[in-house]
Design brief:
This is GGDEF domain-containing protein. The protein is α+β, with helices and mostly antiparallel strands. It has 13 helices and 12 strands. Strands 2-1-5-4-3 form a 5-stranded antiparallel sheet, with helices on both faces. A 5-stranded mixed sheet has the order 7-8-6-11-12, sandwiched between helices. A two-stranded antiparallel sheet has the order 9-10.
């Protein structure tokens, strides 16, 4: 109510009193005049109260709209919170200055602490991940302490003891003076992506039938071993194995039987060699084994065990069959100081073993050069692949 409105009431009372007095003193005209004047403050009061009523109505409407918006925002926040809590994404926001942390409930699946404990003690965020590798934990702590934008990938076992791959991403928020006030971040479950990458790698580097390393993986492995052996003055051996009699078994009993036999050969080879040795399949019935840090005597013992193992009968689909291996071996650095020479010489030794009666092994020696072995198809296959490999192309381009 304005100051004018407050004054109208006593003025109106005064005019009523004057009109009453003049009506009894013989001045009816003055009495009527004062009654007429009463209409003016009455009109003013009406306008004032009308304005107040309109203002109150507008205020009630605004309050109603605000309540409606608050209710709508509350619902949206609830929906978003439920979404974040049930997605394979963990959201967090850390207010550095006030030491306040918000983190979604998804963290309970991978954290030592609950989301409530983390929010009560934000500094636990640096050491919250269950069963994490110490080096990865250092990377995460460093990421949070440096207050920079970045990401770290790590593996973790969840509450159900399942291995999961996660990626933590941080995005610092700066104030006007470029000081980092808040670190917002996500912890994303990238398990499916990681498994897909592993599957692609499996397809690229491993034989589909036997799960042994394929030609490409063997090339990479030989390149690494050659570099290490030269650096540390170690020897290593390359062993070629070709199955005699496999083509007859494959043609007689069918390709399905032949595949089962190759899978079993792969298992027997893996069971015969050392854990650190690499057994690979080149294709068809041809296999290769690479022995790092070995001696001629040790390779000879393994070759004997392979002959005995592979010569044992195979029985699938109620049919028994036999194959025998022919094995050629070359030793670094005695039989060659590069991959090409070692492969070529192991190939020569293998064909010499095949020609002298099969089911035997042969170390390469200079005397084999005098033999009439003029074709080495296994060597051609390997070197064709090596020539086309990325490693060979990179070296070739440099020169």
């Amino acid at each position: 109510m304005t100051i004018y409105s407050k004054a109208i009431i006593p003025i109106s009372l005064l005019m009523i009193a004057l009109a009453f007095i003049f009506s009894f003193t013989g001045y009816p005209m003055l009495s009527n005049l004062f009654v007429l004047f009463l209409l003016i403050p009455g009109w003013i009061l009406y306008k004032e109260y009308r304005k107040r009523a309109l203002n109150e109505e507008m205020l009630q409407n605004q309050i109603g709209q605000l309540k409606e918006k608050c209710s709508k925002y509350k619902k949206e926040v609830t929906v978003l919170k439920n979404m974040y809590d049930h997605l394979h994404v963990i959201c967090f926001s850390y207010d550095i200055e006030n030491d306040k942390l918000y983190i979604s409930k998804g963290v309970n699946e991978i954290s030592i602490f609950t989301d409530t404990e983390l929010m009560e003690k934000p500094k636990l965020l640096k050491h919250f991940i269950r069963n994490i590798d110490q080096e990865k934990e250092k990377d995460i702590v460093n990421l949070l302490l440096t207050r920079k934008k970045g990401k770290v990938e790590f593996s973790v076992k969840d509450v159900n003891n399942h291995l999961r791959w996660m990626e933590i991403q941080t995005n610092p928020i700066q104030d006007e003076s470029s000081k980092v006030e808040i670190i917002n971040g996500l912890i994303i479950d990238v398990t499916e992506q990681k498994l897909f990458e592993m599957k692609l790698k499996q397809m690229a580097y491993y034989d589909e039938l036997t799960d042994l390393p394929n030609r490409k993986m063997i090339q990479k492995h030989l390149t690494k071993i050659l570099a290490r052996s030269k650096r540390h003055d170690h020897s290593f051996a390359v062993m070629f194995i070709d199955l005699d009699g496999f083509k007859k078994v494959n043609d007689t009993l069918g390709h399905e039987y032949g595949d089962l036999l190759l899978v079993e050969v792969a298992k027997r080879l893996n069971n015969t060699v050392r854990e650190e040795d690499l057994t690979g399949r080149l294709g068809g019935d041809e296999f290769i084994i690479v022995f790092e840090e070995t001696s001629t005597e040790e390779v000879e013992k393994i070759a004997e065990r392979i002959l005995n193992s592979i010569s044992e009968p195979f029985c699938f689909q109620e049919n028994e069959s036999k194959v025998s291996p022919s094995i050629g071996i070359s030793i670094f650095p005695k039989d060659g100081e590069n991959i090409e020479t070692l492969i070529k010489n192991a190939d020569k030794a293998m064909y010499h073993a095949k020609n002298k009666g099969k089911n035997s092994f042969q170390f390469y020696s200079i005397d084999l050069e005098a033999s009439n072995v003029s074709k080495f198809p296994l060597f051609d296959k390997i070197m064709s692949s090596v020539t086309q490999s990325e490693i060979f192309q990179n070296v070739k381009n440099k020169f």
